[in-house]
Structures are given as structure tokens and as C-alpha cells.
Amino acid sequence: MTARDTKRQRLYDTETKHSLWVEGDGAMSLSDINKMVQRIVRSKRFSKEFGDLNSRRSGVTVTDGRGRRSGGASWLTNEIAMPRFARHKLYTLHEIAHLAAANQERQEVGPLSEAPHGPRFRRAYLTLVKWECGKEAYEEMRRLFAVAGLDLSLSAAA
User: Fold this and answer.
1) Per-run averaged pLDDT (10 residues), the chain, 158 residues
2) Count of CA atoms in the C-beta half-sphere (13 A) of 1
3) Residue 82's domain spans which residues?
């Protein structure tokens, strides 16, 4: 059974304080998001850090998220849904982090039991921010997480 996602809203509120979110990192087309997602999840460093997502079914699929009120990622189908308003780099990295964390947890622990926005997710998200946005953006997000009390320890509660 998956743990309660008690810090989800705190994480969402924290993300929106990041300078890339506040200043905007530029809207992306669905095609650009798909290219970014495929480049990231097919990279050797992603596979080394989080495991191979491409061996499951047909890799990761990016959809337009039509009819959704938020973006989303499904580890069951390896699908990322990105409605128009969500088509930004940080939002996309957030959704990739869900797949990365779930894949890593399945390999290391077994059946998923951790909170969807728990420490493993936050660590994956920070790693992706560092890879895609640089050290400065990573350090800013890490600082924001610390101020918000968003722990990165895998032994911590969600």
C-alpha cells in the first residue's frame, strides 16, 4: 500500500517559488516536450541512476493531456500527460521524476509503497533539475525544499 502523500501541496507551493517557475522558463510545444523526455529517459545516466524505462512496454509516451486539470505521470503505463498550461520545463521534469522514482523504487524495494511526492521523488526531481537546468537552479530548488521542510532522506516519512 502506498504511503499517504502528506507533503504534496507543500511541494507544489515550493516549486512555484523557484525563479524558473516565477520568471517562466518558456512554454514548450508537445513535440519539444516529447523530444526532451525521450532524450532524458534514453540517456545512459538516467538508466544508471533510475533504471531503464525503455525496456518496459514501448518506452515513455507523452500525450497532450486533453481533458485533464493537471499534468500527470503514470508508472503503470509509462505515460506523461501534459495539458497546454503545463508545457514548461520544470513541470515536465516533475512528471519525469515520478517515473524515475517509481522505477527506482520498484528495483530497490519492490512493490511501490512510498508517497508519490516523498523523498525518493524529491531526490529524482532535484537530479533532473541539476541535469537539465544547471547547478544554480538545482541549488535554488534544494534550498527551497530545505526551507519548506521537504526532507530528502529515504528513511524520512513522506
Assistant:
1) 81 93 85 96 94 74 90 90 94 96 84 85 97 96 96 70
2) 2
3) 8-148
